[in-house]
């Protein structure tokens, strides 16, 4: 996967996962913003206007689903990838309803993460704004 000129906001409260995925994400973006909860993530989102958001769902302060809802109130088109330990269909459908472009259940391989990002990059390149049908 080539390096792309995009800013990514990565939201994860688990230190080990955060460290591992941060190294991977730094290889595929020009700027990586990191938050450990949905409250800080929303602040970073508003301040830095990232091109892509990757978020966990189960986090302290503000959970990932609420964070996504807050983003969607101000921007319907930011590509959002969910990486979560929640594998139930209800969470997946709720995320789909909010327009996330991918929902990945942990554990996640490096290849699977890069595949998801490649899909997002292709949609962005094609100027596609509708992700609801791709989850």
Short description:
This protein is of the alpha/beta class and 135 residues long. The protein is built from five helices and five strands.
Describe, in plain words, how this protein is organized in 3D.
There is one protein chain. The chain has 135 residues and is of the alpha/beta class. It has one domain (7-127): Rossmann fold (3-Layer(aba) Sandwich). Helix content is 44%, strand content 17%. The protein has helices spanning 15-26, 38-48, 64-74, 89-97, 110-125, and strands at 7-11, 31-35, 52-55, 80-84, 102-105. Strands 2-1-3-4-5 form a five-stranded parallel β-sheet, with helices on both faces. Helix 3 links the parallel strand 3 (52-55) and strand 4 (80-84). Helix 2 (38-48) runs parallel beside helix 3 (64-74). The relative contact order is 0.16. Mean pLDDT is 90; it is low at 128-132.
Please give a handful of descriptors for the protein shown.
alpha/beta; Rossmann fold; 5 strands; 5-stranded parallel sheet; 135 residues
What is this structure's SSE topology?
Elements: E1 7-11, H1 15-26, E2 31-35, H2 38-48, E3 52-55, H3 64-74, E4 80-84, H4 89-97, E5 102-105, H5 110-125
Parallel strand pairs: 1-2, 1-3, 3-4, 4-5
Indicate how many domains the architecture comprises.
1
Shape type: globular
CATH class (first level) name: Alpha Beta
CATH superfamily: Response regulator
First and last CA, distance? 21 Å
Which percent bin holds the helix content? 40-55%
Judged by helices, strands and strand pairing, the structural class is alpha/beta
Low-confidence regions: 128-132
Work out the number of β strands.
Answer: 5
**Major sheet:** 5 strands, parallel
The CATH architecture classification is: 3-Layer(aba) Sandwich
Radius of gyration: 13 Å
Number of distinct helices:
5
Average pLDDT, all residues: 90
Order of helices and strands: EHEHEHEHEH
Task: Classify the fold: give the CATH topology.
Answer: Rossmann fold
Question: How are strands sequenced across the largest beta sheet?
Answer: 2-1-3-4-5
Q: What portion of residues belong to β-strands?
A: 15-25%
